[in-house]
Amino acid sequence: MSLSVYQASVPVFIRGMTVLAALLDKAEAHAQAAGMDPAELVNARLAPDMYPLSGQIQRASDSAKFAVQRLSQGQAPKFPDDETTLAQLQQRIADTIAYLQSVTAEQLEGAEDRQIVVNFGDFKPEFRGDTYLLSFALPNFYFHVTTAYGILRHAGVKIGKLDFLGPYTPQDGKSQA
């Protein structure tokens, strides 16, 4: 069995973004039940030098869309990173998913062999497409998804490992929510 770059990227990023949307639904319910301002959750962080929840969602969104942009040699939408509410973060997630869904498998054909350069100012690492996806893009994406989960869990939102994993999809391909 061979696995294409498309199969290892777009559906994986969509699944992660969908998990984030479900986590934010639980965060909203938690804030309502606890009588707390949802902005407390949006601004919550695990450590003073880490991005707050909003920044983690923004970075997960950017990681997904820019990875697919680089691999497809297309153009991803730019978002201004100005979300301050759970509803705005949900919209960003929805917009990210919509972009990802617009990318076809054909656009990623040959991506495993493309040269990918990531610009970090003076540091510009170069990757082969498959190495970029597997050793940088996916770990970076899941770092931000995991950190968002950790922030919400630390803030008291009732979520667990199954919330992070999302709906189970058995071999027959029918999702088990």
Automatic annotation (TrEMBL):
Write down the Gene3D superfamilies for this protein, in alphabetical order.
dinb family like domain
Family matches, as InterPro entries: DinB/YfiT-like, DUF1993
A Pfam family matched in the record: DUF1993
Q: Name the PANTHER family on file.
A: BLL2446 PROTEIN, DUF1993 DOMAIN-CONTAINING PROTEIN
Name of the protein this chain belongs to:
DUF1993 domain-containing protein
